[in-house]
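Exercise: predict the fold of this chain.
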Amino acid sequence: MGLPIVMVSQEEDDFCGDLAGVFSANQRFAPWQTNHVICCPDELMDDCAGWMGYGGCKKEYSHCICRVKPDEIVSGVEILLQ
């Protein structure tokens, strides 16, 4: 096993439902063979909400990922330190 990883994502936790393996970076590029926590926004912002495209967020700058709260990331680290 490698180092534990906290991944911060721009996608909603349930992004794409049944098509997650196709469009979801969380599914396709999640940390492999190591303990990990993926921190996601509760919902996508503005015109990204309901958009079915690769990665979830359609902006070219930090947008939906900014909805992940710092305390959620700290909680992810605490989970992995247990």
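Check your answer against the key: Strands lie at 5-8, 36-39.
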